[in-house]
Write a structure and sequence with these properties.
The chain is of the alpha+beta class. The protein has two domains: 101 residues, Phosphorylase Kinase, domain 1, CATH 3.30.200.20; 186 residues, Alpha-Beta Complex (Aminoglycoside 3'-phosphotransferase, Chain: A, domain 2).
């Protein structure tokens, strides 16, 4: 590999794969030349990404390179193909702009893994723009409603990640609580532990799955003038627990909007509790895991947890 520096971000994982701008440019020119040209302009996109190294290619294309090897190239190739299909489906349903898939690239020039190409979506993300506004809350309700009304085509939850049984995530959350206790005061830890104990025995939802984005965090929403105008990272779009996208309530909105959003989405006590559980499961990992490697994501986890402590039933 070239010694030209990368990098779309800091080292966040023990098995993280690095890739240089030169290698990205050569892979793109060799495999997507008609789309990007023989000498594409490649710029790392630094920010909150924790799964992919992201590069902007010219003005209209994005290349995304997985940061971790996972189960290997063959499984990753299948996963990327599934993500591309999910992106295409999301683009047909979303009331706001979303990136569109352009293809899956193959390993080469010393890079060991498949990778993906999609359209670039310009805008300001929710880490840099205010999301706790009346207009954004309205747009969030419209977005989640559109997803819930979409046809699952009889597909069940895929069985991976958040969106199935909360109880399945118990060992991970216990690890997170143990790590968090190293730097958080005992009173806060007691409250967090009691909060998790109220969630940990939740199994699968009693309601059928609906279509869900699954990762509605500040880095995945684009904002203009306090309104939601774009949606990123939709490769996980698919059937899941209908409460899963409620994580956005605590990730993106202040307490002044919670009740009105709950009423407009028609969330009963069970659904709201499950939404809080999914938000907790995500946030408790963000706070400790990225504390030194990605402080922005760590701060998001802390803020969401403190909001959940406020939003007691």
């Amino acid at each position: 590999m070239s010694d030209t520096p990368t990098t779309a971000g800091p080292v966040m994982h023990a098995d993280q794969i690095d890739i240089s701008i030169d290698v990205v440019a050569r892979l793109l020119a060799g495999q997507f030349g008609p789309l990007v040209g023989r000498h594409p302009t490649v710029t790392p996109v630094t920010g909150s990404g924790t799964v992919n190294a992201i590069f902007r290619v010219g003005d209209e294309v994005t290349a995304r390179f997985p940061l971790q090897p996972g189960a290997g190239p063959d499984q990753l190739r299948d996963d990327l193909a599934a993500e591309q299909a999910a992106l295409a489906e999301l683009a047909q349903i979303s009331p706001v702009a979303t990136p569109r898939p352009l293809g899956v690239g193959e390993p080469g020039h010393g890079h060991p893994l498949p990778w993906a190409v999609q359209t670039w979506l310009d805008g300001v993300d929710g880490f840099r723009a205010e999301t706790s506004t009346a207009g954004f809350a309205d747009d969030l309700v419209s977005l989640v409603t559109a997803f819930r009304e979409a046809d699952t085509r009889g597909r069940p939850f895929c069985g991976r990640g958040r969106g199935g049984s909360v109880a399945d995530h118990g060992p991970w959350v216990e690890t997170c609580l143990h790590e968090t206790a190293r730097f958080v005061d005992s009173e806060t830890m007691g409250r967090l532990t009691r909060l998790w104990h109220g969630f940990r025995d939740l199994g699968f939802a009693s309601t059928p799955p609906v279509m869900a984005h699954g990762d509605l965090i500040p880095g995945n929403v684009l904002v203009a003038d306090g309104r939601l105008v774009g949606l990123l990272d939709g490769g996980g779009f698919g059937p899941a627990d209908r409460s899963l996208d409620l994580v956005s309530v605590w990730h993106l909105l202040g307490p002044e909007w919670w009740q009105s959003v709950r009423e407009r989405l028609g969330s009963d006590d069970e659904e709201w509790q499950r939404g809080r559980a999914w938000a907790f499961e995500q946030a408790i990992g963000l706070w400790w895991y990225y504390r030194t490697s990605n402080p922005q994501m760590s701060r998001l986890g802390e803020r969401t947890l403190r909001r959940l402590l406020v939003d007691q039933p």
